[in-house]
Amino acid sequence: MDPTIRAPETTKRLGREVRLEPSDRALAEAVIERGEEAAFRALYRRHTPRLYLFVLRLLGGTAMDAEDAVQETWMRVCRRIGTFRWDSSFATWLTSIGVHVAQDALRRRGRDPLIAAEDPPELPAPPAGIADRIDLDQAIAALPDGCRQVLVLHDVEGMTHTEIGALLGIAEGTSKSQLSAARSALRSLLAEVEHA
Predict the structure, then answer these.
(1) Deepest in the core among 65, 78, 81, 132, taking most CB within 10 A?
(2) What are the CB-based long-range contacts (under 8 Å, 24+) for 137-144?
(3) Contact residues for 47 (Cβ-Cβ < 8 A; gap 6+)
(4) Phi then psi for 19, rounded to 5 degrees?
């Protein structure tokens, strides 16, 4: 173990011994100031599972694309960690980088992730027998990119329309209309599957 990253301290709470992990800020400072690989690994292990699920949903459920997006996100973090101002949590900053990486990936696929959807999108009919296999993640993956991004950011990540608008560079009203369209499309898709 790297001597500058100490083993987690413990404390007693309600009669139990609890491990106190270093904060994200302490780990980031260890990476910035001393280039500590152990600190970077701790940040990576702490945040990657959530980041992976997040970009997986944004990209429509393709595991290989999500893995690439996670890797690119962490590469950008490595380049920019010294510029992070701590105006928000590390997780929020990481999520915003993940959003931009996912948008870049969608653009490379030739799809504009910010296309407004005024009407609920037309979804293909589910194949026969899908009723036993479909789940919410599959239904979310079937949404158009812009609707999917807003739905994930709002309903999964808990962001406000103002925050989503600022993050994606869209109007608050566009965020609201895309969320409405996404929810309508999900209801339609799940209703079709239920009655199949």
Answers:
(1) 65
(2) 137/57, 137/61, 138/61, 139/186, 139/189, 139/190, 139/193, 140/57, 140/60, 140/61, 140/186, 141/57, 141/60, 141/61, 142/60, 142/185, 142/189, 143/60, 143/182, 143/185, 143/186, 144/115, 144/117
(3) 90, 91, 94
(4) -80, 135
Strand-pair partners of 16:
13
Rounded to two decimals, what is the model's pTM? 0.72
- Give the CA count within 13 Å in the CB-facing half-sphere of 126: 23
Q: What is the mean pLDDT of each run of 10 residues along the chain (196 residues)?
A: 51 67 95 95 96 93 90 96 93 94 88 47 48 67 90 92 92 95 89 68
Nearest-Å Rg of the Cα atoms of the chain is: 20
- Please name the fold of domain 15-111: Rna Polymerase Sigma Factor; Chain: A (1.10.1740)
Q: How far is CA 62 from CA 48, 58, 130, 131, in A?
A: 16, 10, 18, 20
Interatomic CA distance for residues 97 and 91, integer angstroms? 10
Q: Which amino acid is at 135?
A: D
